[in-house]
TrEMBL record:
The gene is GNE. It comes from Marmota marmota marmota (Alpine marmot). CDD domains: GTB_UDP-GlcNAc_2-Epimerase (cd03786). It holds the Pfam family ROK. Residues 37-375 form the UDP-N-acetylglucosamine 2-epimerase domain. GO terms for biological process: UDP-N-acetylglucosamine metabolic process. Zn(2+) binds at H495, C505, C507, C512. One of its GO terms (molecular function) is N-acylmannosamine kinase activity. InterPro entries: ATPase_NBD, ROK, ROK_cs, UDP-GlcNAc_Epase, UDP_GlcNAc_Epimerase_2_dom. This is Glucosamine (UDP-N-acetyl)-2-epimerase/N-acetylmannosamine kinase. Gene3D superfamilies: 3.30.420.40, Glycogen Phosphorylase B. The lineage of its organism: Eukaryota, Metazoa, Chordata, Craniata, Vertebrata.
Length: 648
């Protein structure tokens, strides 16, 4: 008590709505009751606990020697969607008086029932702290929505599995207020030892029934698809009749559609069939023994996919009600069925098997963890809960420093002779340009590009330029917008393959346009000719300290070097074939060639289009860009177009 800063006992209200949630809450209630120096316990009972048709299950709470402080009749009969809504409304009307009278410090709410939603809503609006049990889980029906809604209302969370804990964190709940404890019912399940279990089996199923030679069936309506769930229940009963084993059938819960399911049971004579025992309720201690020693459990109750795994009992899970639950290997899913055959086959596969015991939902020590967690709650902390949202993009619209900044991009041009990096503004102005000689190896080029980008980015700060990104590559413009592609790699036009047995490309492939027509490719061919003394012709010279490059090859071609002319013609043809492929794919209205080599290629490209392209695209305009530094401007546009289109 001193640790959490409280100077009095913690007044805990536990509200239970039905037989299912009581099986999870009872172990916590027993734990609270054993520590009266720390806790005061108030018990509120509502929902189907107080209805005779559902077994008057409030009596088992009294049998467990708990004082029920308040009984609230909150169920509007009708067992349809409207009745569920009206029941929530009735609970909301009655709960404020109860909570005003009890004045609890904290309310413990379990699970995902509509009654629990009313409890959480009332407590939240009345500034009462809420501890939610079993949040973060996924099943597959409207229960998911209710469960997650309660999570948002709750201040503290006790979850059963690691996945549920991660779901809660993903839902922006405060990790410090989440306890991974395991399911409280497992504390009882894993310690349940009853040597006289046969007397329990005989009491519910008859004197002639043997261990592992009977079935437990528990099926509830799916409120989001009532008609289909009733059909599945009919098929289940037909399959159980055909399977011809003694079967204990528990009545469904009070959800919309339950009345129709009971009608199906009576229509098929289940209550009078010699192989069936139909009951409204079985005390949890006895229910544990029945499922632990059954040959199989069938239905769509969460008990089947959660608690029964502790015993390794085979389970057949029907339909979608628990489709998202974590399960052990003992569970066989039948998602859908048009006839009884699929369910009957599942019974033949599962009945009588024994699986390893599963502890997915708990290790038997949940209650001590929960009690310790309750003791740690500091009532002096602010009541308003905080959500741990992920960071979002800052709002820069009213920041004068940002307003005065120049939105810019770093543009990279990988030339044959030089590497160039430039800071380019939104207006297409080159603020500053950096040029370095292109190294020989790939690793040296990459390192130099990174070094130049780092240098430019540092300089951009001094120039009050805000760098939005780095751009490299060609571009395709469609309907006045640059095409980026799913991974921002669209328009890698230089790597269109135009020959299966062409020269090696820097990308690792061969026969790409870049391997033929880029500045580096022409530099490579010029160096080969020079090494063989086939480059220079009359009127040409290359100083010893000057590297041979593409411009020397172009000069040689102009002066009549046939080999240089052939290389340029091959390069232009490769580029032309790539353009033809683009014409056939994109059917553009304009092709713009840029760079120092563009004017040398344009006539060859036009010739290839006339010879190779379909007549429908041959009228395309092919022009040379008249921009200064078009490669740098184009690279910058890759960044500026994308980022600003999403900021403004």
């Amino acid at each position: 008590m001193e640790k959490n800063g409280n100077n009095r006992k913690l007044r805990v209200c536990v509200a239970t709505c039905n037989r299912a949630d009581y099986s999870k809450l009872a172990p916590i209630m027993f734990g609270i009751k054993t520590e009266p120096e720390f806790f005061e316990l108030d018990v509120v009972v509502l929902g189907s606990h107080l209805i005779d048709d559902y077994g008057n299950t409030y009596r088992m709470i009294e049998q467990d020697d708990f004082d029920i402080n308040t009984r609230l009749h909150t169920i509007v009969r009708g067992e349809d969607e409207a009745a569920m809504v009206e029941s929530v409304g009735l609970a909301l009307v009655k709960l404020p008086d109860v909570l005003n009278r009890l004045k609890p410090d904290i309310m413990i709410v379990h699970g995902d029932r509509f009654d629990a939603l009313a409890l959480a809503t009332s407590a939240a609006l009345m500034n009462i702290r809420i501890l939610h049990i079993e949040g973060g889980e996924v099943s597959g029906t409207i229960d998911d929505s209710i469960r997650h809604a309660i999570t948002k209302l709750a201040h503290y969370h006790v979850c059963c599995t690691r996945s549920a804990e991660q779901h809660l964190i993903s839902m922006c709940e405060d990790h410090d207020r989440i306890l991974l404890a395991g399911c409280p019912s497992y504390d009882k399940l894993l310690s349940a030892k009853n040597k006289d279990y046969m007397s329990i089996i005989r009491m519910w199923l008859g004197d002639d029934v043997k261990c592992k030679d009977y079935i437990v069936a528990l099926q509830h309506p799916v409120t989001t698809d009532i008609k289909h769930s009733i059909k599945m229940f009919e098929l289940t009963l037909d399959a159980l009749i055909s399977f011809n084993k003694r079967t204990l059938v528990l009545f469904p819960n009070i959800d919309a559609g339950s009345k129709e399911m009971v009608r199906v049971m009576r229509k098929k004579g289940i209550e009078h069939h010699p192989n069936f025992r139909a009951v409204k309720h079985v005390p949890f201690d006895q229910f544990i023994q029945l499922v632990a020693h059954a040959g199989c459990m069938i239905g769509n109750s969460s008990c089947g996919v959660r608690e029964v795994g502790a015993f390794g009992t085979p389970v057949i899970n029907l339909g979608t009600r628990q489709i998202g639950r974590e399960t052990g290997e003992n569970v066989l899913h039948v998602r859908d069925a048009d006839t009884q055959d699929k369910i009957l086959q599942a019974l033949h596969l599962q009945f009588g098997k024994q699986y390893p015991c599963s502890k997915i939902y708990g290790d038997g020590n949940a209650v001590p963890r929960i009690l310790k967690f309750l003791k740690s709650i500091d009532l002096q902390e602010p009541l308003q809960k905080k959500f741990c949202f992920p960071p979002v993009k800052e709002n820069i619209s009213q920041d004068i420093d940002h307003i005065l900044e120049t939105l810019s991009a770093l543009a990279v041009d990988l030339g044959g002779t030089n590497l160039r990096v430039a800071i380019v503004s939104m207006k297409g102005e080159i603020v500053k340009k950096y040029t370095q000689f292109n190294p020989k190896t790939y690793e040296e080029r990459i390192n130099l590009i990174l070094q130049m980008c780092v240098e430019a980015a540092a300089e951009a700060v001094k120039l009050n330029c805000r760098i939005l990104g780095v751009g490299i590559g060609g571009g395709i413009i469609h309907q006045h917008e640059l095409i980026h592609g799913s991974s921002f790699c669209a328009a890698e036009l230089g790597h269109l393959v135009v020959s299966l047995d062409g020269p090696d490309c820097s990308c690792g492939s061969h026969g790409c346009i870049e391997a033929y027509a880029s500045g580096m490719a022409l530099q490579r061919e010029a160096k080969k000719l020079h090494d063989e003394d086939l480059l220079l012709v009359e009127g040409m010279s290359v100083p010893k300290d000057e590297a041979v490059g593409a411009l020397h090859l172009i000069q040689a071609a102009k002066l009549g070097n046939a080999k240089a002319q052939s290389i340029l013609r091959t390069a232009g043809t490769a580029l032309g074939l790539g353009v033809v492929n683009i014409l056939h794919t994109m059917n553009p209205s304009l092709v713009i060639l840029s760079g120092v080599l563009a004017s040398h290629y344009i006539h060859i490209v036009k010739d290839v289009i006339r010879q190779q392209a379909l007549s429908s695209v041959q009228d395309v305009d092919v022009v040379v860009s008249d921009l200064v530094d078009p490669a740098l401007l184009g690279a910058a546009s890759m960044v500026l177009d994308y980022t600003t289109r999403r900021i403004h």
